[in-house]
Amino acid sequence: MALPREEAIVSNLVAGSSDKRGEGIPLFASLKIRNYQLFFWGGFLSNIGGWMARIAQDWLVLTILTDYSSTALGVTTALQFLPALVLVPWTGTAADRFDKRKLLVVTQAGMLATGLVLAVLAWTQTATTWHVYLLAFLSGIAGAFDTPARQAFAPEMVPKRLIPNAVGLNTTSFHAARLIGPAVAGVSIAWWGVAPALLVNALSFAPVIVALLLMNPDELAISPSANKPGAIMEGLRYVKRRSDIIVLMFIVFMLGTFGLNFQVVNALMATVTFNVGADDFGFLSSIMAVGSLAAGLWAAKRTRLRLRLILFGMAGFGVMMSVLTFSPNIEFYAVILAPVGFTSLTVMTAANASVQLAVEPEMRGRVMALYMAIFLGGTPIGAPLIGWVGDAFGPRWTIAIGAFSALLTVAVVVLYAVWRNGWEWPGHTHDDDDIVPQPPEDLR
């Protein structure tokens, strides 16, 4: 039977997003807008440094500060993402209340400072495990405020019909940098140690700050400020009434908590299972980025967003992770990482763009803070768990958990969606619709 639009799981997904003429959007359409162009290239340079730091920090913890302790590596990752979960009531409100461009300048400066301190400690060979833990947590605090503001800032730089394109290009920037950063970090660590890679990361925040300062504020579509009492609870009530957004959050929670722990998984597989050096460890992340980059480019070109796309992507991720579990050698493992990256990024970009399009501008910061808290906030649960599993049962079991959780998620969502939609595949009666997802009538 048909359900009211605000109750149907497919209300904001099956209809898709497309322009009315059925024409595609040019791949680099958002880059024609100067403010977004500055944001894109500043972020690209910073992302290269960020990926170098991920490899360097993992190598520092795993091989220098500990004796290949995956638990210590899991704790480091958990502390880095814990603030995104704990501070969600304030981070989303800050994104909706303050000028996002100015807020991003502050958060980027904070991450520059923590990155510089870690680089100095590594260079002087005085770093300890608790130093890394503390700096990961402090960087996570800055990141917790940075992420929802950055997510909600993209729609202020481009018109609404280009939001999926901007989200896809942001992902493309992130994973194009992933092709470069880990590979360069691996070679840099092998030749000179971890400190230079960490220093590059600290300095890489400067291009973002410069790009933000060079933007023209008059060309930004500033969202209405949520500067009123009860803004936090209003955001929670809004999401509670949106079953479509809740299901998307469930999907990304399962993906982020149990599937996307490659910061731990790749490190364990490289050092314990395949017994390779830092250069090969960095190479694995770059290979995975090939698939992720392809998914990002597809997302930038895509004009329709459907629940089935997200579910097929999640199912593909589960299948590829299952294959990855039984990799006989590092060459096979590296090849399978590419489709793993493609399927996981397909889920992430489609879910992200769907939520961005589905919410009202004045609610976007709070909703995206909650979305990212659920997506990234699961890491404090998943990373230590995956690290412990790796120590107790071996690295391959860390991959198997991700495969099982992805396939379980697909089964749960399909059963729920079919049940809510009268035992009909979601979207079956809406294949020809070309509308952008909208909030329910009573929430407009």
Radius of gyration: 21 Å
Helix content: over 70%
DSSP strand tally: 0
Low-pLDDT residue intervals, each spanning 5 or more residues = 1-22, 423-444
Largest β-sheet summary:
none
N-end to C-end Cα span: 25 Å
CATH names the topology as Growth Hormone, Chain: A
Number of helices: 16
Give the full name of the CATH homologous superfamily. Answer: MFS general substrate transporter like domains
The helix-and-strand class reads: mainly alpha
Write down the overall mean pLDDT: 80
Approximately how much beta-strand content do the residues carry? Answer: under 5%
Can you tag this structure with a few keywords?
444 residues, 16 helices, 74% helix, disordered C terminus
Summed up:
With 444 residues, the chain is mainly alpha-helical. Helix content is 74%, strand content 0%. Residues 1-22 and 423-444 have low confidence and may be disordered.
Walk me through the topology:
Elements: H1 34-65, H2 70-86, H3 88-97, H4 100-123, H5 129-157, H6 163-192, H7 195-214, H8 231-240, H9 243-259, H10 262-273, H11 278-301, H12 307-325, H13 330-358, H14 364-377, H15 379-393, H16 395-420
Describe this protein's structure.
The protein has helices spanning 34-65, 70-86, 88-97, 100-123, 129-157, 163-192, 195-214, 231-240, 243-259, 262-273, 278-301, 307-325, 330-358, 364-377, 379-393, 395-420. Helices cover 74% and strands 0% of the residues. The relative contact order is 0.19. Residues 1-22 and 423-444 have low confidence and may be disordered. Helix 2 runs antiparallel to helix 15. The protein has a single domain (29-443), classed as MFS general substrate transporter like domains (Growth Hormone, Chain: A), CATH 1.20.1250. The protein has 444 residues and is an all-alpha fold. The chain has 16 helices and no strands.
